[in-house]
Amino acid sequence: MTRITLTVDGAQVSDDVEPRMLLVQYLREKLGKTGTVIGCDTSNCGACTVHLNGTSVKSCNVLAVQADGAEVTTIEGLAEDGRLHPVQEAFRECHGLQCGFCTPGMIMQSVDLLKENPNPSEEEIRLGLEGNLCRCTGYHNIVRAVQHAAGQAVTS
Amino acid sequence: MTATVDQVEREIGRDRRRKEDQRLITGRTRWTDNLTLPGMLHLAMVRSPFAHATITSVDTSAAKTAPNVVAVYSGADFGDELGVCINAWPITPDQVAPTHSPMPSDRVAFAGEVVAVVVARSAAEARDAAELVDVEYDVLPAALDLKEAAADTVLAHPDLGTNKSALWVFDSGEAGTGAPVEDAIAKARTDGIVIEREYRQQRLIPAFMEPRSVVVDPTGEQYVMYSATQIPHILRFALAATTGVSESKIRVIAPDVGGGFGGKLQVTPEEWIAWAVGRRLGKPVKYTETRSESLLSAHHGRDQWQKLTLSAEKDGTVTGLKVELLADLGAYVAIVGGGVPVLGAFMFNAIYKFPAYHFSVQTVLTNKTWTDAYRGAGRPEATYAIERLMDELAAEVGVDPIAIREKNWIKHDEFPFTTVAGLEYDSGNYEAATARAKEMIGYDELRAEQMARRASGDKVQLGIGVSTFTEMCGLAPSRVLGTLDYGAGGWEHASVRMLATGKVEVVTGASAHGQGHETAFSQIVADRLGVAFEDVEVLHGDTQVAPKGLDTYGSRSLVVGGEALVKAADKVIEKAKPIAAHLLEASADDLEFANGRFSVRGTDQGMAMAEVALATFAAHNLPDGVEASLDSDATYDPVNFNFPHGTHLCAMEVDTETGELKMRKYVCCDDIGNIINPLIVSGQVHGGLVQGIAQALWEEAVYDDSGTLVSGSFVDYLLPTAADTISFEVDHTTSPSLTNTLGTKGVGEAGTIASTPAVVNAVVDAVRHLGVNDIQMPCTPERVWRAIQDGGSGGATTEAAQPHFDEAEGAGA
After folding, report:
1. B496-525 residues touching A, CB cutoff 8 A
2. How many Å lie between the alpha carbon of B3 and the closest alpha carbon of chain A?
3. Shared fold status for B21-28+491-636 and B37-374
4. Which of A133, B365, B530, B716 is in the most buried spot, having the most CB atoms within 10 Å?
5. Boundaries of each 2Fe-2S ferredoxin-type domain copy (chain A) (predicted)?
């Protein structure tokens, strides 16, 4: 067991963890942060995407011990004072989700994408979301949601 | 109340943002795997690595001593209490079907079948210990190739004596719905056109994003099963029917469910094993599959060979269609099983006026993962076959693919139309949808560009694919399902409860897993009862809350479940009327109900539904003999299937030197009758399109020659990403359904059914002048390139995985 101390969604937490424990397992099983989900075993689907020190990572691809001392933001920490983040709002406005399982990862990746590139083209959005799989939406309205969050005019 | 009747905005037709989303976008979710109960134990499955083998021994001793392991069971440790996985649709009386034990103790019939289960205090410890279970097998020859299996070369289940499960036949000559097809084909062979083709529907995997998960809680008086399922009600029935527990002692909850697409329309070995273990130990247990387990053992879809014969006059008027299918059931006959190809039997004639039709399907057992419903279930296969054939006929006659369709389709003034398969199509307008789709894509300009590229010998050629689809959904009158030997009915149930505060609880037997029922159903009830959209709460997915229902699949929820809601709401109004009349001191005959208000005709007197609800709750002043409740139930059984249709057009660019494909534009004009929520409809269409396009271009479940699934992870099974896909143009024409009061038609599967042939027709159209008339799905660049080189269909899929590591350097390099 290894002692780790980190900040998750603004709160400091500290636990003894097995060295093999993944960050996503730590979030879900130790902290009850079940908003972040697991969709695959091979880091293809991106459903578990969170921010580690402000940058998006697939939390199934990070060991919990690697997050020692870090600041982690999950989908549950994105809204501030009950106000949705503009990307969350955009996903609702543009119907960028159906079953909602990929949504936490998709939103976290979109936030990072827009931080890197505040005014992306459609192609840049599509390439920027390439590591996140969705089976419901066909991506059409997810792309619209990111455009909307970027303040771009959105067609149906 | 200042609003006049005219000013009240109707909810139906509004692009309401979804009620479901607030939770889902903030991570406040209840996926089954999120649930943790006190003392809960975790399961890990031990699965067969062999496609077909005798189990000679299962040694659990090492696993039992592993840290925090509570129990290890193999099939032999359970008797009848384990139950069986059921087939609910024996398609013929003599259907051959193996018994499907959730955990067999003697023989495994596909790679991935569960042979033992480990129970531990954590999921990680359970998985560690599963590695220690020592199973000895005697490997048996496996039936893998569908055609060889149909010839009984190797038996998937030796004790059955054959792999042939059922032969289901429809013949229009025998049914009296048309002429004998052999006469039409014989005539066409002498003085007409005969198109003969064989198409492959490759094996697909539904690949919902949420892996399946099940929690069993045996600690209360009712045993509770939480499951990531589309069918909580059917699951409850099947548990009761096969495990000896009284139905009244079982509660099934489908909490938030992350997609299904037919893949969670199943009763699974993992659910049954968790049920047995939870009951045995008296403790809550949870099993959540890994993605690899999901791809390996959750049911697959499609997997057919289609032998097709189309006969026509020289001018392209079709005279007959003969369809002979081989359908791979996999190792067991699943809950719908052979019913999937039968659902396609009525759709090969599609939107056309064929005078003669013959359909047969031979279902076949193999030693592969069992197959069942996947989005469209039978209708995509049918639509693919006929829409590909109509393009081939157009090429033979030498006319535009749309012209050949126009020559044969049912005209808008010919509805209602009874088809050669015996169905009555109530409404539609193929001309209007096609005209709109052509306009959207710029059809004539694209054809001109195609001609120019061909003339100049451009290395990038352009193809335009056409798919004018229809489908049957909203399964259907229970009476008809009974004649097909389907095990259940086609009704749906709804309740409307008027709360004292004027709020409304709506209970539906449909079970959403991403469809947006809470939003769309709220719109329907808000309009009907004249209450605010926000004041309607839709409850579903828990057999204790919604005790009656037949769940969500087959594009049935709105067209069947929505109509049940209407009927329940109307009963509420009928119950409220005498109470309102009594309180208004008027005759019930003088009352009219509009916009949530009873008013006395010819006066300014009236009373809101909410006021009637409060007065009913208080019950201080009700008419004699009237019960103190407005709550109402309705069970609706549709009078017919439901027939959405549409025209889909796809423009593909094909690099003839490399086989690379680029989708340039995709438009569709679907006629799904009246639309409740256009935003939700657009989402259903987009998502459906990509699943159909993915069959055409990317997805295939591939086995190697020993029966191992080599596309067993998301590294190998090619789900499309945002970067692989394009934005779509979607529009609608409206021919309201005449068989339900809302005038709606199903939309959940339409995109998937229509898009696959549109894409393949476009690819073939781009290179037809190079001597190509078919490319097998998925149309990979390699296959397209090969087809261009040698004129074939591009060859079969190489049944081996790409090496993940350079073998020369070794895995450790």
Report:
1. 513-516
2. 27
3. no
4. B365
5. 2-78
| B696 Cα to chain A: minimum distance (Å) | 15
The CATH H-level (homologous superfamily) assignment of domain B37-374 is Aldehyde oxidase/xanthine dehydrogenase, a/b hammerhead (3.90.1170.50)
Query: Of A28, A38, A101, which has the smallest distance from its Cβ to B259's Cβ?
Result: A101
In this predicted structure, what is the pLDDT of residue B440?
A: 98
A95 touches B at CB < 8 Å = yes
Q: What pLDDT does residue B799 have? A: 60
Task: Please give the DSSP secondary-structure letter assigned to residue B519.
Answer: H
> pTM of the predicted model, to two decimals?
0.96
Least confident interval from A24-38, A69-83, B201-215, B780-794: B780-794
pLDDT for residue B113 = 98
Look at residue B3 in the predicted model and tell me its pLDDT: 42
What is chain A's Cα-based Rg? 15
Continuous segment of H or E residues that includes residue B139: strand B134-139
Closest chain A C-alpha to B584 CA, distance in angstroms? 43
Q: Residue A118 has which token pair?
A: 């505040």
DSSP assignment letter at B657: T
Contact A136 B209 (CB under 8 A): yes
CB pairs under 8 A between A and B: 177
Question: Which one-letter DSSP state was computed for residue B473?
Answer: B
DSSP-derived secondary structure for A1-70: -EEEEEEETTEEEEEEE-TT-BHHHIIIIIT--TTS----SSS-S-TTEEEETTEEEETTSSBGGGGTT-
The shortest CB-CB distance from B727 to any of A39, A45, A140 is to A140
pLDDT tens digit string along B30-76? 999 999 999 999 999 999 999 999 999 999 999 999 999 999 999 99
Whether B27 sits inside 8 A of A139 (CB atoms) is: no
In tens, the pLDDT along B468-510 reads 999 999 887 999 999 999 999 999 999 999 999 999 999 999 9
Backbone φ and ψ for B566, nearest 5 degrees, come out as: -60, -45
Domains of chain A (ranges plus CATH)? 2-76 (3.10.20.30), 86-149 (1.10.150.120)
- Residues in chain A with CB shorter than 8 Å from the CB of B689 are 138
For residue A99, the chain B residues in CB contact (below 8 A) are 208-210, 256-259, 513-514
CA torsion, ordered B181, B183, B185, B188, to nearest 10 deg = -140
Retrieve residue B52's tokens. 């077909």
Task: Supply B119's token pair.
Answer: 């129970």
Q: What is the pLDDT of residue B793?
A: 79
- B24 neighbourhood in chain A, CB within 8 Å: 97, 100, 103
> Tell me, which fold does domain B21-28+491-636 have in CATH?
Aldehyde Oxidoreductase; domain 4 (3.30.365)
Check whether domain B426-474+638-796 has CATH 3.30.365.10, yes or no: yes
Q: Determine contact: B483 vs chain A, CB below 8 A.
A: no
pLDDT (tens digit, 9 = 90+) per residue, B368-401?
A: 999 999 999 999 999 999 999 999 999 999 999 9
Task: Say yes or no: A75 contacts chain B, CB-CB below 8 A.
Answer: yes
Contacts A18 to B, Cβ<8 Å: 124
Most A-contacting residue of B205, B209, B676 (CB-CB within 10 A), to test interface: B209
Report domain extents, chain B: 21-28+491-636, 37-374, 426-474+638-796
Distance CA B813, CA B806 (A): 8
User: Is some CB atom of chain A closer than 8 A to the CB atom of B18?
Assistant: yes
How much is the pLDDT for B812?
40
B290 dihedral zone (left: phi>0; alpha: psi -120 to 50; beta): beta
pLDDT < 70: residue spans in chain B: 1-8, 798-813
B269-288 per-position pLDDT tens digit: 999 999 999 999 999 999 99
- Enumerate residues 98 to 137 of chain A having a beta carbon within 8 A of any beta carbon in chain B: 98-104, 107, 122, 125-127, 129-137
